[in-house]
Give the backbone structure.
Amino acid sequence: MAVTLDSVKNLPNQYKFLILLGVMAGIAAGYYFGVYTGKKEELRKNLEALNKSKTELQKLQDTKKNMDAYKAKVAELEAELNLLLVAIPKSSEIPEILSQIDSKGKEAGLEFLLFQPVGETQVGDYYEVPVSIRVTGTYHGFATFLDKLRQLDRIINVRNVKMSGGGVVNNEIVLDITCRVVTFRF
C-alpha cells in the first residue's frame, strides 16, 4: 500500500501526531549522528590541541623568564670576566707589567741590582709569573714602592721580603732588600 498525502489526511489525529513525532525523531537522529557527533568529536580534538598549545605556551613563557634570568647572569659573568681580565692579564701584557714594576721602583727611589723573571708556574686556570728582585734604598722608599704596586690595576703580590743593612748614605740608612714579586696571567 502506497502512502499518499490524502491517505495521511484521512488518518485520525492521534496517528497524524505519531507520524509527525516519528518524522521529527528521524530528523533529530539524523542530525545527532550525521552532524552533532562529528562536530562534537572535532570540538574534542580542538580542545585537546588548545590545551596542548596552552601547555607549550606556558613552557615557552617559563623558558623566556629563565632566559631573561640567564641573560642577566651571563651579562654579570661577562662583566666579572672583564674585571678579571684587567686584574689578570694575558701573556702579551706581561712585559708591560714588568716594565711598570721597574718604573714604580725607580719612582720610589730604589736602585735595582737584580730584576730576574723566574719560570712561570701553572696554578689551575692561570699562571703565576714570579720575578726575583734585589734593590737598595731606604725603608720609606721600599714602602712607597709597595704602595705604588698596590695602586696598579693588576694583581701583584710581594713575597719573601728580606731586608738587611747596607749602610748609611747622606744620613739615611740604605737597606739591601730582596723579594719576589708575583703577577698572574691567563
Residues 13-87 form the longest helix (75 residues). Residues 29 and 36 are 10 Å apart (CA to CA). The beta strands are 111-117, 121-123, 126-137, 156-169, 172-185.
